[in-house]
Design goal:
- The protein has about 130 residues and is α+β, with helices and mostly antiparallel strands.
- It is about 30% helix and about 25% strand.
- The chain has one domain (about 1-110): Beta Polymerase, domain 2.
- The protein has helices spanning about 1-15, 45-60, 90-100; strands at about 20-25, 35-40, 70, 75-80, 85-90, 110.
- The longest helix is centred in the middle third of the chain and has 17 residues, at about 45-60.
Length: about 130
């Protein structure tokens, strides 16, 4: 189930053109505040907000309750707390400055890319 939720968050972010989407598995760390982080970035605050809104919308549709959020007022770094998953949506410059992933460089991570959509089947000519 967690793999589905991580992919749902990643797809929601990618749908709104988030870049560098990764999940970081923190389960092996004692005292970690969550089991997973999902981290991504966007090029401007409007896009950061759109990524956040889309993730919240799709997670709500799947029955996941947002426990708390932070950073929506300025959209430089928005954090969405889903209990075992914390989502970090950065304005690109902020992600480069804080380098959050470097804190856990030795734990497993997964990079997400846009899923390939099946090409439409062409009708045979008559």
């Amino acid at each position: 189930m967690i793999t589905h939720d991580l992919r749902l968050i990643a797809d929601a972010a990618i749908d709104k053109k988030a870049e560098n989407v990764v999940s970081i598995d923190l389960r092996s760390l004692d005292g970690a505040i969550a089991d997973w982080f999902v981290v991504c970035d966007a090029s401007n605050t409007t896009q950061v907000a759109a990524v956040s809104d889309n993730i919240q919308k799709l997670m709500k549709e799947e029955g996941h309750k947002l426990l708390r959020s932070q950073g929506e007022e300025n959209a430089f770094w928005i954090i969405l707390d889903y209990g075992n998953i914390l989502v970090h949506i950065f304005l690109r410059e902020y992600r480069e400055f804080y380098r959050l992933e470097d804190l856990w460089a030795d734990v497993p991570r997964k990079v997400y890319k846009e899923r390939r959509k099946p090409s439409p089947k062409t009708k045979p000519e008559e």
